[in-house]
Amino acid sequence: MGIFSFGSQKRDVIRWENPNPDLLAWKWEHEFDEIKNNSSLIVDPGLAAIFIKNGKIEAVETKSGKWSLETENTPFITSLKNILSGFESHEKASVFFLKIHEITNQKWGTPNSVTYIDPTYDFPVELRAFGNFSFKIIDLENFWTNYLGNRNQVLVDDIRMLITDRIVGNIASIFASKKISYNEIDSKTLEIAETLRDATKTDFEKLGLELVDFRIEDINFTDKTENFIDKITSKKADIGAINAASNIDSNAMNNYKDLENLEIMKQAAGNSGTGGDAMGAGIGMAMGMKMTENMQNKNSSTSESSEEKLLKLKDLFDKGLISSDDYEAKKKEILNNF
What we know:
This protein is α+β, with helices and mostly antiparallel strands and 338 residues long.
């Protein structure tokens, strides 16, 4: 009974010795009647101790240090003494230790691709995202009430998975609300990460948690989305080529067409087989005639243009509007360009 009970091993300290790195919270696993009246409470750096009675937190110790049950009168020690003295039942009392330092380098990722509609190109973007984050317990009462409860321990991985689920659940809506096109994602990863952190802040605070640092390390697309992107890139290249072609003069475009026709003639002439030879020859002749016609038309238009210039020049000279030297010089220039 109480601290004077015999037949069981007595405990000198109430402490979480050598905390398991995989644990975030741990219930002290011994009975209160094993505690000596001169035992001590030890809270190591980065830890906190909470005294639970009837399902509620009665006392908290967040400072690191050592307190003797015989000489100290802190709220936590007083609560322990009341239980150990026999004045109160210890059946519904317990001590928990929790890590309150920052838990770093926790990996997160989308288990499956998430989808949103690209606001610019109006196609479904399927993506996967990965990164890391850090978190810490900032409100022991909320953490106990809304998460720890009747558990004897909490794994760090339990909280990692909880945070990951909340983050992943918000990704699609964040991309949609911020109207981020697929080709803007790389330049906006920091902004996206900050928005995701803000979007989940209230939910985590209710659990007594804070997402101290959140990072997106990589975002990649599914094969289906990559195919969409390839098509968009190809179309954009075609549009760029068309816009560039609008700045090319007509003579250059005609020369290009002539070269294309010549290449078609060569390919047609190279077709194998009797039918292929006849067809190739026919196509080649037709192409050759068409190309010759085009070239004759160009030459004809050039000749007519030169003739018109000479006639106009002669008319100016006959009317005495230009001198004989000017007439001869200009005539020579037109003929040189003929």
